[in-house]
Each structure stands twice: as C-alpha cells, then as structure tokens.
Write a structure and sequence with these properties.
Strand order of the largest sheet: 1-2-3-5-4
Shape: elongated
Order of helices and strands: EEEEEHHHEEHEHH
Radius of gyration: 19 Å
C-alpha cells in the first residue's frame, strides 16, 4: 500500500528514541496513523504540531498494518499562532474532534477542507470563534448528521427561525416553538446566513448546538466523551469574553 497526499497533522506521540506515531488527516485518503522516523529531531518537531500542513508519503507492506510515512513540511506551519493561546486552544480542539470523530482510512475531503479553512482564519480574533462553530457543524454534516436549518420543522416556514430541535437537528420558528421553548436550543442568526451578524452569546449558543449533536450522534455511540480540549476551549473563550 503506497500513496502520497496533502495532509494536516492531528497529533503526534513519541515512539521509540527518535520516531513518533503521527495521526494525519489527508485530503484524499482520510485519517491515517503512521510511524515517522526521525520525528523527534529538532528540525521536525515544529512541523508535528496539530494543524501543520505537510506532504505525506505513506507506505505499508499490508493494507491493515501500521505503515511508515515521510513528511515534507508545507509553509511555516502554525508557528504564527504560538503567541496566541486562545487560537491554539481552538486549533487543539478542532484537531482532537477530527481525530476522535472521523473513521480511520475513509476519505472525507470535506473535513480536510473545513479544518484547513479554520486554520486559515485563526489569526483573526473577531472571526474565528464563529468559524469554529461552523467547522463543528461541517464535521457533523460530513459524518451524515448535518443540521437542517432551511425551514421550520413544524410549519415549513422559512421565516423567524430561532430554535433547533435537540432531537432532530431541524430548525423551528418562533411561533411553532413558543410552547416548547424551554426544551429547544436557541439558534443564533449567524448559522443561518453569513450575513446574520454576531451578537453576544451567539458563539455559545452555536457551540451548545454542535456539542449536543456531536455528543448524541458521534461520540456517545462510541462510548466516549467529547475531547477535553473542547471543554478547555469553552473555558478559555468564556474567560476572554468571546462567547
């Protein structure tokens, strides 16, 4: 088994004296783990941080074995974020979600491009928390559990959509949801449209929605909690007044 592909590093752990097991999200081949010789070297370490973009050349004797890979860095990696702990928390959470949610060796180019897009805006503090929520929503969509926010689930109305059903992930209008509003999830306008604007509390409302469905449909069936890095991110966003 042999291939070459663009990839984003999700995680790396030291293996042996000089190597590491690196988990990659590739554009065309999905999530792959590989042994990378020499990964503990001073030259390679900066490019094994979550979010680093590389060209991966993978090789294995058998398709079901852990193979070996060589990694060629692309660009400067994520070094520009090292002085921004909040952005690094967002990146760490996004990488952990991809690592925990995506199946092994199954192509999900949408997930690759969603993570790539998020990494591209992490240097813009006013934008990236909302993009992060969209990233989580996109991950749900890629896994077949996408939210349906196109119209009211009860009436078919396209107007005044302000709730999401926690059972179905479908939008609910103000009028239809009024009798059940205590059981529904608030729907922030920015999830309906890029021109929806962003108000205080909207990022938290968005994360409540995506977190609920990630737990219900993705991590719950695997008997796993949501990654601790996501909880850490919410705490840091709250402390920074960004929720």
């Amino acid at each position: 088994m042999e291939w070459e592909d663009e990839a984003l590093v999700l995680s790396a752990r030291i293996h042996g004296e000089t190597g590491a097991i690196v988990e990659l999200l590739t554009e065309q081949h999905g999530k792959f783990a590989a042994h990378v010789a020499g990964a503990a070297s001073r030259r390679m370490k900066p490019f094994l941080q979550p979010g680093s973009r590389v060209i991966a050349r993978y090789r294995a004797r058998m398709s079901d074995q852990l193979g070996a890979a060589t990694l060629e860095p692309m660009g400067e990696g994520v070094a520009s974020l090292f002085d921004d702990p909040l952005a690094l928390a967002g990146l760490s959470s996004a990488a952990s979600l991809a690592a925990g949610a995506l199946p092994e060796r199954e192509a999900h180019p949408g997930a690759f491009h969603a993570l790539e897009a998020l990494i591209g805006v992490l240097q813009i503090p006013d934008i990236w928390p909302a993009v992060y929520v969209r990233y989580e929503a996109g991950l749900l969509q890629e896994l077949g559990f996408g939210l349906d926010l196109s119209k009211c689930a009860a009436t078919g109305s396209f107007d005044d959509l302000i709730y999401v059903s926690p059972r179905t992930g479908r939008a609910v209008s103000r009028a239809a949801g009024e009798p059940y509003k205590d059981k529904l999830l608030p729907l922030p306008p920015f999830l309906l449209s890029a021109q929806g604007g962003l108000a205080e509390g909207d990022v938290k409302a968005g994360l409540d929605i995506t977190g609920h469905f990630l737990e219900q449909f993705v991590f719950g069936p695997l008997n796993r909690p949501l990654p601790p890095t996501r909880t850490w991110l919410l705490d840091r966003l709250g402390e920074a007044g960004r929720l």
